[in-house]
Amino acid sequence: MSSVVDWLRTSTPGLLVLCGIAIAVLLFVIIRIKLEPFIALLIVGLGLALAAGLPVSQIVGTAIKSGDSILETGFGGILGHIAVIIGLGTVLGAILERSGGAQALTARLLGVFGERGAPIAMGLLGLIFGIPVFFDIGIFVLAPLVYVAARQGGKSLVLYAMPMLAGLSMTHAFLPPHPGPVALGGLLEVNLGWLILMGFVCGIPGFIAAGLLWGSYIGKRVIVDVPEDFVNEADGGTTGSASKTDEQGGPHVSGGTAVTTARPRVTTPPSVGTIGAIIAVPLILILGATFGTILLDEGRLLQVLTFFGTPAVALLIAVLIAFYVLGIRRGSTVQELSTLTGESLRPVGMLLLVVGAGAFFGKVISATGIGTALADTMSAAGLPIIVLAYIISCALRIAQGSATVAIVTTGGIVGPLVAAQDYSQVAVALIAMSIAAGSIILSHVNDGGFWIIAKFFNMTVKQTLQTWTVLETVLSVVSFAVAGVLFAIIA
């Protein structure tokens, strides 16, 4: 018995077997037992650490001191990086949604593209509004606007919904301040500015292929009518209710909220320029710091760019601008804005716990030597790290349905491999994009988002598989292909 234990703990094949067992157990407790991913990741991480023979003092510390333990450094390291960013991003999205910015963007885009170009307008609406707003909230807000466009165009709802969904999915998967990319920034230690750049570079081709090309093709073949009750809601200016999705299954972990509050109908939405400027502020500041680090020598200007381009500071500035321009200047009180902030932040707690538990799981993998064993095996097989990252992320996504769990688990597994190599920030950002791309592939019945889309867009399970599932797969494969080609050139 002791020889088997020694083999598991010290040999490369044994460590890989331990890792495989741990992932299998993780999937089992999430899928079959329906345990919350946060609890599942914590249990499996602790079990893997004990099975690999790590000292208890290293895993959880002692009764007197635990600050250096894997448990606390795993959680604390990643949460210190992402908590403020995700929190501020959530608040920014909430004030933009409440202000009626989506209606303003819709009117302008439909005016530019006309009736024939309405699907493109819907795609751009999802792409732009999806930057500050989480995926499921984006659906709740934008779905009624899609209904109106489909009713006016007289064609299948699918033709208008798919481009919008592709835009929302692309931004949610590839761009900060969404939880997945922000978590990858911490797990892989890559600058968020490079993640923003590579997110656009890899995600836009995927959005075009999945949202515009595939959406146009399938929208003419899967005919879905706009449901009358939703049309009535759209005419009344509401954004639907998240309670419609409360009964849906699937271990879905989202950055958004399943709790929405009644919002008064917006009669004078802000201008498109105002919305665009507020969304652009944090992106410009973060990119300014990134390029300043590359192009400028040490000095006061670089210090200024670095300070204001720190993601937390950049998002705080955008939130304060939004509070004034979209709130106080338009008649909202500070108390109303505080209430909105509190409501928007309520669901963020579970998301942060899942990401923290995933980082702890990754820390265990690093401490046990599993990361080194994976690196050796990958090197012997001649498998590029970017391909390995994509395959692992795809497998986890397909098996358990949650993009967040797929991202944080894959990031924890791949993180030690990336750290062991001398990759540039651009190359690491491309690896992050491959993980993000894998985390959205083949959305099906174990993904809560699948059921949200089926419900809101009046589709059967078969129709949702024909449309949304294929869209996500096209977006994943094309975006990964772009990342892979660029990685081969740069790395």
UniProtKB/TrEMBL annotation:
InterPro entries: Glcn_transporter. The keyword Membrane applies. Pfam families: GntP_permease. It comes from the Bacteria. Signal peptide: none annotated. Residues 235-265 are annotated as: Disordered. This is GntP family permease.
